[in-house]
Amino acid sequence: MTEMPLSQRVSTIRTMLDQLDAQLSEAKAPPEGLEDLKHTVDTLRTSVWAVLSASKSTNYHALVERFRLRRALDLTRSMLADMESGKTNALQPEHVELQILSQQLIERIGRLKRA
Questions:
Q1: Measuring CA to CA, which residue among 37, 42, 43, 39 is closest to residue 16?
Q2: Domain residues of the chain, as ranges?
Q3: How far apart, in whole angstroms, are the C-alpha atoms of residue 75 and residue 43?
Q4: Most Cβ neighbours (<10 Å): which of 46, 77, 102, 111?
Q5: Digits of tens for pLDDT over the chain (115 positions)?
């Protein structure tokens, strides 16, 4: 199966989101998974903003990478603050996965520093 060109995928997703928006305005209650969709759309929105902003630069890839790093830093700070304030007090499966990925990330950053 051939993958749809990116411009066509963007158009298809926009149409789907417009249809979803119309359905949501008529819904009597928020459907299951709406919070996850909100997070995904928020992430996509900021990624699109970064790509559009960086496209005006001669150093496109570096700007996108730095933007992603800043988003990761903001999210990490927020999670840490929630843990320190007691808002997060139960271990979730994602905590373990995050811990493993964080350890891998620390190792990779160490390699970058040595290079």
A1: 37
A2: 6-114
A3: 11
A4: 46
A5: 568 898 999 999 999 999 999 999 898 999 999 988 988 898 888 888 878 877 877 887 888 888 889 889 988 999 999 999 999 889 999 999 999 999 999 999 999 999 8
Q: Which two tokens stand for residue 76?
A: 């990490």
How much helix, strand and coil, in percent to the nearest 5, is found in the chain? 80, 0, 20
DSSP notation for the chain: -PPPPHHHHHHHHHHHHHHHHHHHHH-SSPPTTHHHHHHHHHHHHHHHHHHHHHTTSS-HHHHHHHHHHHHHHHHHHHHHHHHHHTS--S--HHHHHHHHHHHHHHHHHHHHHH-
Question: Which residue carries 């040595």 as its tokens?
Answer: 114
